[in-house]
Design a protein that fits this description.
Number of helices: 7
Largest sheet: 7 strands, parallel
Helix content: 40-55%
Number of strands: 7
Radius of gyration: 17 Å
Distance between the termini: 51 Å
Shape: globular
CATH class: Alpha Beta
Bound molecules: nicotinamide-adenine-dinucleotide
Structural class: alpha/beta
CATH topology: Rossmann fold
Order of helices and strands: EHEHEHEHEHEHHE
Number of domains: 1
CATH superfamily: NAD(P)-binding Rossmann-like Domain
């Protein structure tokens, strides 16, 4: 078997996922990235040319996750790590909104932020078992603390925490399962189309920097490059080999509360 490590990453077209594509590539991994649309694909092609494998599609479709895994293995010969990272935010959606808005938004957020993670793991598992590989998922400061989103987003990221623990237990000793919980990071995070938030972009929200700075004891909003180091450690066979069922927070202290 070829000994180059191989990673598949969802949400690789922007933000934290794009930075993961960069750092795993620099670390020598073969990288397969799932992106949402042709615009993201073209931008990745400009940056990485033919060095990475790219799949375009909707992470909610199981066939798309299967395609991502297949293309990774066809191109690089194996899969060592699956990173479930694609996600949307809820733009502080309130339960006081009409149910006609809240209910479909809930479904959309949970389908992307939770169910697609399970779909990705299910698709990757046969390959990860062959390599005794691992899963890393993007959780959030909202897996622990209020203030970084509304109840829907917060519930979805708490679900991710439960998923990490339960799957780490179920899949041991064959496959390790861990997560990373970033805090406020300036990205193009969008929201549910059901609430009309799919064209909203977090980094363009008036006052977003001040909001994050105020919620973060270290006093600044992260850039994607500030939050990716734990993914590399958790994926690493050497550094991560005794770690499973853990979520590493990298949030400037946000889960501690306001200073
Ligand atoms: N930005 C933050 O402050 C922050 C904090 C904690 C956790 N997170 C989490 O980090 C992860 C990455 O978000 P980000 O901040 O980098 O924002 P981002 O919008 O740049 O990245 C999310 C990516 O997921 C993709 N995506 C969304 N829905 C999809 C779908 N149905 N099919 C395929 N791809 C889809 C988007 O196109 C985008 O490229 C998310 O899970 C998010 O919840 C973000």
């Amino acid at each position: 078997m070829n000994d180059q490590q191989v990673v598949a990453i969802t949400g690789g077209g922007s933000g934290i996922g794009l930075e993961l594509v960069r750092v795993f590539g620099k670390a020598g991994y073969g990288v397969a990235a799932l992106v949402r649309n042709e615009l993201q694909e073209a931008s990745l092609r400009r940056e990485f040319e033919d060095r990475i494998e790219i799949v375009v599609g909707d992470v909610c479709e199981h066939a798309v996750n299967q395609k991502l895994v297949k293309q990774a293995v066809d191109r690089f010969g194996r899969l060592d790590c699956f990173i479930a990272n694609a996600g949307i935010w809820d733009y502080m959606l309130s339960i006081e909104e009409p149910w006609e808005k809240f209910g479909p938004s809930f479904d959309e957020i949970f389908t992307i932020n939770v169910k697609s993670y399970f779909s990705g793991v299910s698709a990757a598992l046969p390959e990860l078992k062959k390599t005794r590989g691992s899963v890393v998922v993007t959780a959030s400061v909202s897996s622990y603390a209020v203030g970084g989103g509304g109840s829907c987003y917060m519930a979805s990221k708490h679900a991710v925490l439960g998923m990490v623990k339960a799957l780490a237990y179920e899949l041991a000793p064959h496959v390790r399962v861990n997560g990373v919980a970033p805090g406020g990071t300036v990205t193009s995070l969008t929201g549910p189309a059901s609430a009309g938030y799919d064209k909203h972009v977090m980094k363009d929200m008036p006052g977003i920097d001040e909001m994050i700075n105020g919620l973060t004891p270290l006093g600044f909003a992260a850039k994607p490059e500030d939050v990716v180091a734990p993914y590399l450690m958790l994926a690493s066979r050497e550094q991560g080999k005794f770690i499973t069922g853990t979520v590493i927070s990298i949030d400037g202290g946000m889960a501690l509360g306001r200073k």
